[in-house]
Amino acid sequence: MSALNRILSEKSDRELMFYINNLDKHTEEAVMVALEILKSRHVILPEDITETISNHFKQNKEKPRTNHWNRNITTDSEAMEFYSQKAIYIFSILFSVLFGSVMLAYNLHKVRKPFVWTILFGLTYSSISVYFLEKYHGSLPMTFIANSLGGVVLYQLFWNSWIGKQTQYRAKSIWIPLIIALIIFVPLTILPILGS
User: Are residues 184 and 123 both part of a single domain?
Assistant: First the structure.
């Protein structure tokens, strides 16, 4: 007898029915073991219960899995084209919150929302971050942490409020922001190394 069988066999019929009635809260294996135990105890169950459970788990396996960042991206040609949440977050971490805020401001401008506040936030946050990181001799990991926190604020405060959590959009190409970021940040990275 497996450990799962042993554990579930110690449960009451009512506790095992919880597995049958709440399929999303349990693994398929646990539900099937609970079902077999209930059958062996001659508990009255709906006739098609085995088929219902099998179909439920089969459908869940067939559902395409989307991660948090891509769940609102669509290929619908009628949807607005935005820099994606993921792109803004990554650019904020790697290049600065100011850079991410400009990308988000582009999106807000397209939906006629007050994008200036986003840029002001990015400028203020980036300036304060640079000041404190220099004052306390912050390292590169600390810079990434500070930038990631700023990226979260951009998402939570501005994207969710003015674009909306559920807004479907097409992902805009990041090539132009990437080229601009590299033109700005590669020299800023290389010059201090060459100067030392």
Answer: yes
Backbone angles phi, psi at 109, to 5 degrees: -60, -40
Reported confidence tier of residue 195, pLDDT bands at 50, 70, 90: low
Residue range 47-77, pLDDT digits in tens:
888 899 888 888 877 655 556 777 788 887 7
Task: Report yes or no on whether pTM surpasses 0.90.
Answer: no
Q: Return the half-sphere exposure (C-beta side, CA atoms, 13 A cut-off) of residue 51.
A: 3
Dihedral (C-alpha) 7, 11, 16, 19: value to the nearest 10 degrees?
A: -50
Considering the domain architecture, whether residues 48 and 87 belong to the same structural domain is answered as no
Domain co-membership, 126 together with 79:
yes
DSSP 172: P
Helix axes 49-62 and 28-40, enclosed angle (nearest 10): 180
| 95 in the same domain as 128 | yes
Domain around 8: 3-62
* Tokens encoding 37: 């135990």
Looking at the fold, whether 47 and 136 belong to one and the same domain comes out as no
CB 82 within 8 A of CB 163: yes
- Tally of residues, the chain: 196
